[in-house]
Design a protein that fits this description.
Rossmann fold; 2 domains; 13% strand; five-stranded parallel beta sheet; five-stranded mixed beta sheet
């Protein structure tokens, strides 16, 4: 079924592309300004450059998970990130497509619609923040928005420096996590953008366990029992939801930071993000820790 669906999609997409090419056979070359984006991190980067995408995959998901920079309501919906609507993409008529490397590899038709540009923040070793800065500069150069890239980077750098000042005197290590369900958490550590920013503001991560290439692991609640002095920073749960977890999970109630009420909420933030996500994370952590000293 999947093979047949892909074949039909290819035929339909190919027909649309052929028609699009005939229609635009004698079009003048354009500066890359009408952009379709298939990846949330790349959408964040485009918006950081003050460039509004004409279209984006899973627009509601961007607003729920990434949030900032704010995505206006008139951006065209392109369907799922893994299987974008190629017919709609052709109708959008972008002169550049921003897609992650997995998308450009798995959807070869993209390059027939418009030139594609990717970014690699987490695909290589080293500092995610350094890679995010480098990739934003590269995108800014490509789109003739180098000055906007520098402004966005400076804003984030200042947020990190300010958070470092705010965290001075806070000596506890922190667990940084997001609940997957009442019994499991996504825990952030080595290789993550968030770990990189914690290092830069001088806050120790209580989680020293394994993480994947994107810097997180999925663990049971009991895995957070190891560091007795830790403070928990949790992402994207309301107080009522946390109370429900406490009511149903006895292991959670026995954790030291729960019993001693060393828990702070952070808003939902994009953990696979770029420069803007790094700055937003630094802002929120700095303000939170400043209030705990």
């Amino acid at each position: 079924m999947q093979t047949r669906r892909r074949h039909l999609l290819t035929l339909a997409g190919g027909a649309c592309i052929a028609a699009f090419r005939r229609q635009n056979a004698f079009a003048e070359p354009r500066v890359h300004q009408r952009i379709a984006v298939l990846d949330w991190t790349l959408a964040e980067m485009a918006l950081s450059l003050n460039l509004l995408p004409a279209a984006l995959t899973e627009t509601k998901g961007y607003r729920d998970w990434v949030g900032e920079p704010v995505l206006p309501g008139d951006v065209i919906e392109l369907g799922l990130r893994g299987t974008p609507n190629l017919e709609m993409l052709v109708q959008v008529a972008p002169d550049l497509i921003l897609a992650n490397e997995n998308q450009t590899a798995s959807i070869p038709l993209l390059a027939q619609i418009a030139p594609c540009l990717s970014a690699s923040i987490y695909a290589i070793s080293g500092s995610p923040y350094v890679h995010a800065v480098s990739e934003l500069k590269r995108l800014g150069d490509r789109l003739e928005r180098a000055s906007a890239a520098e402004v966005a980077i400076n804003i984030s750098d200042r947020a990190i420096a300010r958070a470092s000042d705010q965290a001075t005197g806070f000596s506890r290590p922190v667990y940084l996590a997001r609940f997957v369900d009442p019994d499991h958490l996504m825990i952030f550590g080595r290789n993550s953008l968030f770990q990189d920013i914690l290092d830069r503001i001088g806050v120790a991560n209580a989680w020293q366990g394994e993480t994947n290439a994107w810097g997180f692991g999925i663990v049971g609640v009991d895995a957070l029992a190891g560091e007795k002095e830790a403070h928990l920073l949790y992402l994207g749960l309301g107080e009522q939801d946390l109370e429900q977890i406490a009511a149903t999970n006895a292991i959670w109630r026995r954790l030291t930071f729960v019993k001693q009420q060393r828990i702070s909420a952070l808003p939902s933030m994009w953990f696979f993000g770029g420069v803007a996500s790094a700055g937003r994370f630094a802002n929120n952590v700095g303000v939170t820790l400043a209030g705990l000293k």
